[in-house]
């Protein structure tokens, strides 16, 4: 579930330098898009608001009409990499049948992998960057990342096998599962795209790491496919035949 970016119109007296109104994207969306690209290429500290404004073809003052500064832009981009998945957790836990708890973990991993695969300019890698992690923005964002990791641990603990549970704690399990899904970030950093089938394979891998038997995995996939429409994620269902 990718959150739609807010469409805030450009105010009077703040015209763009180039382009025609009929073909331009909303200013706020364009600022986020260009900032995401520049942050990913040059790093957060290596990018200035002037450079973002120039990339958008607007005056620097116009950028400040939409965002208080560079930290506000970063904060919204970080949210885009985590919040769409996190917001589905409650629905996943409510809708998944208790007799197939594996479907819940599969769904979270699948939706999260898809989120990371589709956010612009691979912005999931931003919260891995040292200059981002040392910023005040990351301190405010980190609880959301921890909440998502905790959700992975909680759903994983519901299905983990005895041998795995004996060696890995819940918090460790959550972090491990997050790392599995974040292979999407590393794959995109190499210039490769993540297909729906690959996202499904990543979600299945999360179940295998927990020691879930193959027959339970197969049942979880079928159950998850039935639940995806309720989550607004029909496009992620397995396509057979």
How is this structure best described in words?
The chain has two domains: 27-67, Homeodomain-like (Arc Repressor Mutant, subunit A), CATH 1.10.10.60; 81-231. It is elongated, with a radius of gyration of 20 Å. The protein is 62% helix and 0% strand. The longest helix has 22 residues, at 136-157. The protein starts with 26 loop residues before the first helix and ends in a 14-residue tail after the last helix. The model is unreliable at 1-24 (pLDDT under 50). It is mainly alpha-helical and 241 residues long. It is built from 13 helices and no strands. Helix 4 (70-86) packs parallel to helix 8.
* Annotation, overall tally of beta strands: 0
Shape: elongated
The number of distinct structural domains comes to 2
Structural class: mainly alpha
pLDDT averaged over residues: 87
What pattern of helices and strands is seen along the backbone? HHHHHHHHHHHHH
Radius of gyration: 20 Å
Low-confidence stretches: 1-24
Instruction: Give the % helix.
Output: 55-70%
N-C termini distance = 26 Å
Sheet with the most strands? Answer: none
Helical segment tally? 13
What percentage of amino acids are in beta strands?
A: under 5%
